[in-house]
Amino acid sequence: MKISIKLGLWFFICIFIIEASSMFFLHRNVVHSLVNEELNALKLRGNSHRDVIEISYDKATLHHIKIMESQTDTEVVITNDVGKVITSSKTVDKEMEKILNTKHEESKNGLIIQSDWQDERYISTVSSFQAPNGEIGFVYMFKSTDQIQHVISRLNEHFILASVLIIFLMLFTIFLLSKALTKPLILMKEATRKISKGDFSVSLPKTSNDEIGELSTSIQILANDLNYLKKERNEFLGSISHELRTPLTYIKGYADIAKRNNISEKDRLHYIHIIYEESNHVSNLLTELFDLAKMDQHTFSISKEKVNICLFMQSILRKMEPAFESKGVKLEFICQKETFAHIDPIRFEQVFLNLLDNALKYSDTNTLTAIEITKKENIIDINVRDQGHGIPAEDLPYIFDRLYRVDKSRSRLTGGYGLGLSIVKEIIDAHGGTISVESQLNKGTCFKITLKGLYDENRFADR
């Protein structure tokens, strides 16, 4: 069953119960008020005749009362204190006689002695009087219940008509309401169906600021993210194919040449050396890809320990100094003493080797690359600054993306695989730190790393 039908049925049942209860309560109170008004009017009429009799009790008065009631829809019977009929506006029938024989108390204000309008023929009241000559009697008033039932029957017809009209309007309103409520849900259902089939080009309008609108926005964000991931995956696979195809082509081509019999041993060794370099190229690429895969699957191991950052960096700089000296790039290191952090030294060596390697590749001779480590309170700031070529402003937001390289030519001499900075960011994130970059063309680049430091072993909270 469709949700619009379900929703409509639930609305109909709930509103129908409320409307039926309200109509029943209203009908009951209207009928009750109507009967009470008739009884009170009948009692007041009897009291009026009693007042006249108490002023002037004679045959003319009684005859006048009899004639007056015979012209109305009510009947009057006047009896003495022992129940003998003195006068009446119509012949007393069995139902009236039954009421006359009913025992009741004397009341100057009148009494209702028959109020059952559904099962009896008459409703009736009685008012006692005392004539000027001291004679005591009773004025009985009667009204046929046929008239009351006729009025109530007409009232029922109006209630039924009103109920039918209310149900019709209710169904029409529920139809429009269910359509209005379910339309965005149907659109979202179609959108999720497209998403499940791999089509992420969906567009959902934000219809309102309620939960349905938030759900629509969430699905739209999900579709956009999946579409972005799909494009990223395709680009990633294309880039990996490109990165692997080139060295594999070299390996295959030079292997074919090296196995020929008509080449010299010197050339053969040269080709074998090229094959070896390209094999290392593929091996390094696969290593970085495996590292990224482990990070995505949260299986990338981090073994933290307390490390003196200054001493740690000095050991890394000793490894990099020969490469910087051979290119004529000065390497400078500034660090506060006794700066400790809880890090994985193997992973962080990978971070700094990558950053320094990038600084060396894109720096010219007679430039400076500086590493500065400062500590303020419990925060360690590490800046790796060079005076190299710089990064264009339009490329800065994407340099930590996988396989993204500023050098679009993909030169294997000037660029890596576009994975190094992605791994750097993943490692720093895994340590609870942050990394950012500032750069200006032809002025240089600065990578800023922020970590939590250590006051002592007991105050550090390992993430």
UniProtKB/TrEMBL annotation:
> Known CDD domains for this protein?
HAMP (cd06225), HATPase (cd00075), HisKA (cd00082)
Reactions this protein catalyses: ATP + protein L-histidine = ADP + protein N-phospho-L-histidine
Its transmembrane ranges are: 7-26, 159-178
Sorted alphabetically, which keywords does the UniProt record give? Answer: ATP-binding, Cell membrane, Kinase, Membrane, Nucleotide-binding, Phosphoprotein, Transferase, Transmembrane, Transmembrane helix, Two-component regulatory system
Q: Where is the HAMP domain?
A: 179-231
Has UniProt tagged this entry with the keyword GTP-binding?
Answer: no
Kindly give the SMART domains that the UniProt entry links to this protein. HAMP, HATPase_c, HisKA
Q: What subcellular locations does the record give?
A: Cell membrane
Chain coiled-coil ranges: none
Which coarse location class applies to the principal site listed for this UniProt protein? membrane
Matching entries from InterPro entries are given as:
HAMP_dom, HATPase_C_sf, HATPase_dom, His_kinase_dom, HisK_dim/P_dom, HisK_dim/P_sf, HssS/ArlS-like, Sig_transdc_His_kin-like_C
- How does this protein sit in the membrane? Multi-pass membrane protein
UniProt superkingdom: Bacteria
Any idea where the Histidine kinase domain is? 239-455
Under Gene Ontology molecular function, one entry of this record is: kinase activity
Task: Quote the EC number.
Answer: 2.7.13.3
- The protein's name in its UniProt record: histidine kinase
